Amino acid sequence: MNPRILVVFYSATGNTAAPASSAAEGARESGAEVRLRTVAETAPPQAIASNPRWQAHVDGGPHAELATLEDLEWADGLAVGSPTRFGGPAAQLKSFLDTTGGLWAQGKLADKVATSFTTASTAHGGLESTVLAINNVFYHWGAVVVPLGYAHPHLMDSGNPYGGSFVSRKSAAPDKEALDALRLRGNRLATLTGYVANGLRGRVSPPE
């Protein structure tokens, strides 16, 4: 069976939405069934209005369907992305992740294959700590965390080994190098998810 991949993200200005779309594209190239989802914008209007690019992105929406807990339960693997906010994921994404306690308690998030990605405006503004903070959620779920690594030559020049990332200097949009890295990320995620999911589906429970 083809793996089911969920790509869920929060993006204020579009810089995290673009890598999310690239990850989804890479997963589809591997034959996966893919859902691309965002999370609700919860920032107050005055905060959004203070940044013209943020306001324009909100006004130009919706950019994807809103993620649901059903999407998480459906998925065999997932890629989760957020802009970096003070060295961690944005509150909008964290709020969604904080609703997963019921699924976690039922064991429905265990053994999913998961990876993370981020964008930031500064090179040392917390890219790696944001990726690792998202991964902390996966550890609690009992998910199988897949790092970006350097599994493809392109990744030697395009990102850190923890997860996909892009530094948006002077509000620059993600470049081809970063988007290609996320496409490879989605492709590898789907491939490894297929191995895990099909193994679990074919598992025979031991006799009681």
What's this, in brief?
With 208 residues, the chain is of the alpha/beta class. 43% of the residues lie in helices and 19% in strands. The chain has helices at residues 17-29, 45-49, 52-59, 69-74, 91-97, 101-105, 127-141, 155-158, 176-201; strands at residues 4-9, 33-38, 65-66, 77-85, 88-89, 113-120, 144-145, 164-167.
Average pLDDT value? 90
Number of domains: 1
What is the first-to-last residue Cα distance? 28 Å
CATH architecture: 3-Layer(aba) Sandwich
What oligomeric state best describes the polypeptide chains here? single chain
SS class? alpha/beta
| CATH first level | Alpha Beta
Question: How large, in whole angstroms, is the Cα Rg?
Answer: 17 Å
Protein name: NAD(P)H:quinone oxidoreductase
Keywords: Oxidoreductase
Family: Belongs to the WrbA family.
Enzyme class: oxidoreductase
Characterize the structure shown.
With 208 residues, the protein is an alpha/beta fold. It has a single domain (4-201), classed as Flavodoxin domain (Rossmann fold, 3-Layer(aba) Sandwich). The chain is 43% helix and 19% strand. It has helices at residues 17-29, 45-49, 52-59, 69-74, 91-97, 101-105, 127-141, 155-158, 176-201, and strands at residues 4-9, 33-38, 65-66, 77-85, 88-89, 113-120, 144-145, 164-167. Strands 1, 2, 3, 4, 5, 6, 7 and 8 form an 8-stranded mixed β-sheet that branches. The longest helix is centred in the last third of the chain and has 26 residues, at 176-201. The relative contact order is 0.20. The mean pLDDT is 90. One of its GO terms (molecular function) is FMN binding. Belongs to the WrbA family. Its EC number is 1.6.5.2. Pfam families: FMN_red (PF03358). Keywords: Oxidoreductase.
